[in-house]
Amino acid sequence: MIGALKKIFFAGELRVKILFTLLMLLVCRIGAFVPVPGINQEAALAVFKSASGGGQNLFQLMDIFSGGAFKQLTIVALGIMPYISASIIMQLLVAIIPSLQREVRENPEVGRKKITKYTRLATLALGLLQASFIVKYALSMNATHPGVVAQEMLNLTMFGLPWLFYLSVMLTITTGTVFLMWIGEQITEKGIGNGISLIIT
User: Fold this and answer.
1) Predicted model pTM
2) Which CATH number does the domain housing residue 162 bear?
3) For 90-106, how does the pLDDT look when each residue is reduced to its tens digit (9 = 90+)?
4) Exposed site from 24, 69, 160, 164, fewest CB < 10 Å?
């Protein structure tokens, strides 16, 4: 049995796929330790741990889906959640929009590519939207626990909003989500198993 497993593992193509998958997952984990610009990770983690009640439950749920990155406000704080939401939305749209149904049925390859394109665009939009909520969350933490956000990021304001902090955090976190989406697709295509599922686990 062990000999058979060794033979399977050391088969050239399979070994490359396994190593590629492990490397991509390692990159994902590294992202969970890279802080968003202007965020004090230790202070953010302390506030997260001090939360209680419904707020704590919500934070823990989001932290699970982000692989522990949410509580430290890292570049992959949203995890793959925007992509999952976008995929669900696209599945619902295909089910209720006749033109999409027809295109998928009559030309599956073209329909699949179009849905993939729309899913990516929806992921980008949802990522920006959800990242803006994280900015507000960070600012609310900083209001009660000064030091979570670097003061330099709050000095430049426009219409009463720290636009530099909003811009840097939203772009960084959204880029992190898009990067995770890309890694998931690469694992599915060149590695072992479903990339998105592996990233979630």
Assistant:
1) 0.80
2) 1.10.3370.10
3) 999 888 888 888 888 88
4) 160
